[in-house]
Write a structure and sequence with these properties.
Shape: globular
Number of helices: 7
Radius of gyration: 15 Å
Largest sheet: 5 strands, parallel
Strand content: 5-15%
Number of strands: 5
Helix content: 40-55%
Length: 181
Amino acid sequence: MSTPQVVVVMGVAGTGKTTIGPLLAARLGVPYAEGDDFHPQANIAKMSAGTPLTDEDRWPWLDAIGGWAHGRAGLGGVVSCSALKRSYRDRLRASAPGLVFVHLAGDRALIEDRMSHRQGHFMPTALLDSQFATLQPLQADEAGVTVDVVGGPEDIAARAAAALDALGRTSPSPTGSSPLA
């Protein structure tokens, strides 16, 4: 990528945002921020109890991530954030207009299997259905790429970096998502 961009690694729970995000940031030579760290404690308690967040719960979280992204404008960075709805991505872009999204996407069964094996995370597999029901994939007018989560973390991060590079080469101002990379 010729200029440092701020990249949001998005997707439903269990797609590997927390694993792929730092690997992608290392490949791009920019800092990484864990989106879950921006959640207020009330949100974490709610999700830990198996209760999906409302949009009202998410606004302060999205604003905090957007503030971090705004501060990284021109410097580059990678942040994880589910960003499941277009309105959430629009809110992030309102704070940081140059954001580019990497949508980690995959088969529900694979994602549920991965979630069932992780330890120490507050998001239970019971909320996976609500995540898929909420998900609005990237639209053609949104700067970003979609990357399949099949394979190991290094492979996924390499495909994400290559897809971002290709996106940067194909359009002076990235607009649009690619097929699964």
